[in-house]
Write a structure and sequence with these properties.
- One of its GO terms (cellular component) is membrane.
- It comes from Morus notabilis.
- InterPro entries: AAA+_ATPase (IPR003593), ABC_transporter-like_ATP-bd (IPR003439), ABC_transpr_CbiO/EcfA_su (IPR015856), ECF_ABC_transporter_ATP-bd (IPR050095), P-loop_NTPase (IPR027417).
- This is ABC transporter I family member 11.
- There is one protein chain.
- By secondary structure, the protein is an alpha/beta fold.
- It is 33% helix and 23% strand.
- The protein contains 7 helices and 10 strands.
- The strands form 2 sheets. A 6-stranded mixed beta sheet has the order 6-7-8-3-9-10, with helices on both faces. The protein has a 4-stranded antiparallel beta sheet with strand order 2-1-4-5, covered by helices on one side.
- Helix 4 runs antiparallel to helix 5 and helix 5 runs parallel beside helix 6.
- The longest helix is centred in the first third of the chain and has 26 residues.
- It is globular, with a radius of gyration of 19 Å.
- The protein starts with a helix and ends in a 5-residue tail after the last strand.
- It binds adenosine-5'-triphosphate.
Amino acid sequence: MNLDLNAVSRTKRQVDNVLYRTNEWNDRKSSQPFRPKCDYSCFEVRDVSYRPPGTQLSLLNSVSFSLPEKSFGLIFGRSGSGKTTLLQLLAGLNKPTSGCICVQRYGNDGYPSQAPEPLPSERVGIVFQFPERYFVADNVLEEVTFGWPRLKGDLQVKEHLALRLQQAINWVGLNGISLDKDPQSLSGGYKRRLALAVQLVQTPDLLILDEPLAGLDWKARADVVKLLKHLKKELTILVVSHDLKELAALVDQSWVMEMGGILKEEPLPV
Ligand SMILES: Nc1ncnc2c1ncn2[C@@H]1O[C@H](COP(=O)(O)OP(=O)(O)OP(=O)(O)O)[C@@H](O)[C@H]1O
């Protein structure tokens, strides 16, 4: 039998995406909004290693880093070094074999002001590489609201959801586009905007993007960079990318992932 491995991997990511978006809503609706009034907090990965179940292969080895809220972090490195694997752990799609992923609050003095809390996956939004391949709906509105409960009655909840929808659409500049439009008929740049709106509508605290510029023409790339610059003012963003020059101006902190899943802090080589 001939197996199309690309198609298998595409299907797996599509299933991941659908499960993630459905679970995301279910988890999010039950979680308490957590907005600490503290000096600042950091998303922290502490000594994380990962070995896929049933294998002896370590894809990540003692990875540690800290990303302060409202900052922009970038991870670069060779293909196959483990960057996507790390993002999947941050989004809660897989669990670390050892180590932890948490949110740490710090006081004025720069020391932890309380015990770290595990990072709930519902506080993380992830935009996969080539997100447009995993769109599931026939129109923009359904794509953004996919996984939302089909409510009868409760007008207040409906109004709240409608407001969030409007905010997300405005945020990514999709307001000129008819919500009836087929997502697949949008231009490359607008498809990426839609993929971002799908995540922003859930108001994540940490937004993760895997190769946000891949496969776009120069105009769409410039468009997405501009959009990320705008989002950076409101959100903590972690990007995996090979497009270092185009993103350099946005980056506050960067790390290189070396083969074997070893992460080191390193300035961008641009
Ligand atoms: N479930 C798995 N079992 C075994 N090996 C895996 C599994 N998932 C990923 N790998 C391998 O782990 C390595 C790291 O993969 P990963 O996709 O994280 O790399 P990457 O740095 O994101 O690469 P790219 O830049 O090409 O996206 C690759 O060699 C990949 O084949």
